Amino acid sequence: MARGEHVLAFDLGTSALKAALVSARGRIADRETRKMALGLVPGGGAEQDPEDWWRAIRDASRALLARGTVAPGDVVGISGCAQWGGTVATARDGRPLAPALIWMDSRGAPLVRSTVAGPVRIHGYGLRKLVRWLRLAGGMPARSGKDPVGHILCLGAERPEVYGAAWKLLEPVDWLGLRLTGRCASSFATDAPSTTHSPGGTTTAAVAMSGLASVARTILYRGASFAHSR
Questions:
Q1: What is the pTM for the complete model shown?
Q2: Would you say residue 35 lies in a domain?
Q3: Per residue in 112-146, pLDDT tens?
Q4: What are the φ and ψ backbone dihedral angles of 90, each rounded to 5 degrees?
Q5: For position 2, which CATH number holds?
Q6: Is residue 110 within a helix (H) or strand (E), and if so which, with residue range?
């Protein structure tokens, strides 16, 4: 049996969930993998069930602890990362209201292209919008639709009942953080794909420019933390 303090670490990818027990010196004491299902939807959709993510983390964690490689009492924290640029429509109790639109989903592309266009364009972006977006948020929504702006616009157009009922629209790792701790939080890393944030926090003007003003309440404001340890 490995001795000393360990962290339960997980990495949620598109095709699999990897979990490991890692010592304070970075030594991997044990590991587990769970395959993830992917649903491809006509029109460029790519979806996964967030509850499948949660079950994979739960089952892999139980398997690791059941083998006794590390004593449960020596696990002092949880650290996780996940696929980037996805969107989970979340109810106030933390339940997903619909399958997550993951980073591969491009169904929002026509809506994004219409939103970012202008009379004078550079690579499809309106010049004045491009300059303002870069100044406010340091980036622009992807014309491919493969980011949270495209996903949210898609939900509004194709799933208005989900769009209207959402309490928060979360990145995958932020949704997992909510399930793990009961707290809603984001970071600079998970803010970046939404292009609605500046270094100081959510930018109201960028939210409005993205066509997301009607769901501004659901876009997670930075500043909270869900970091916990024993």
A1: 0.86
A2: yes
A3: 999 999 999 999 999 998 888 888 777 888 999 99
A4: -120, 135
A5: 3.30.420.40
A6: helix 109-116
